[in-house]
Amino acid sequence: MSFELPELPFAKDALAPYMSAETLEYHYGKHHAGYVGKLNAAVEGTENANKSLEELIRSADGGLFNNAAQTWNHTFFWNCLKPGGGGAPPAGDVADAINRDFGSYDQFKSNFANVCATQFGSGWGWVVLDNGKLRVMSTANADTPLKHGLTAIATIDVWEHAYYIDYRNARPQFIEAIIDNLLNWDFVAANLRGSSAS
Ligand code: MN3
To answer: In sequence order, what DSSP letters do the residues of the chain get, joined into one string?
Structure first.
């Protein structure tokens, strides 16, 4: 069995102007595809070939962990985006959880944007479920909440390759554009439901 690069859940030009088709051609077509290819090369013919991506993330370290986690992180990130998304979530479980754990949507947005903007160097900003409570955190490089026993609810990729074509060095503008215009609250809600069902 080998790992496959999943289809993007939207057309490459569907997220413009907030994320361009050119960015997706490189970020999905080169970077994400590259991680999947390196992961397959690393597990081929080894005892790891039959492990799930989640098992590899939990058990591996070094280059194998990096490629497994980056494969998972990018698929999760694409699912966090949709055309016409973002802004405050509609009334419902997600809005209730945000109000319960952050006080307000504005406070949530400020906290999430801040961890994304201040992650030093390459990494990811996350909304996670930690003992039944939402909180924000960042991870460096390929690191991912699953490795720490946390449930990922939403993410933004803050590696320079995620924003340099569209925003050059302006990481905070990229983050704000995603939170305001692309965040897929349906996917967030499904992650929240999935975590409470398990
Ligand atoms: Mn990336």
So the answer is: -----PPPSS-TTTTTTTS-HHHHHHIIIIIIHHHHHHHHHHHTTSGGGGS-HHHHHHH--HHHHHHHHHHHHHHHHHHTB-TT--SSPPTTHHHHHHHHHHSSHHHHHHHHHHHHHH--SSEEEEEEEETTEEEEEEEETT--GGGGT-EEEEEEE-SHHHHHHHHTT-HHHHHHHHHHHTB-HHHHHHHHHHHHH-
CATH 1.25.40.10 fits 93-197, yes or no: no
Is the whole model's pTM more than 0.70, yes or no?
yes
Instruction: Report CA(90)–ligand 1 centroid distance (Å).
Output: 28
CA of 156 to the centre of ligand 1 (A): 9
What's the gap in Å between 160 CA and the centre of ligand 1? 8
| Average of per-residue pLDDT values in the chain | 97
Q: CATH classification of 21-79, choosing from 1.10.287.990, 1.10.3720.10, 3.30.9.10, 3.40.50.720?
A: 1.10.287.990
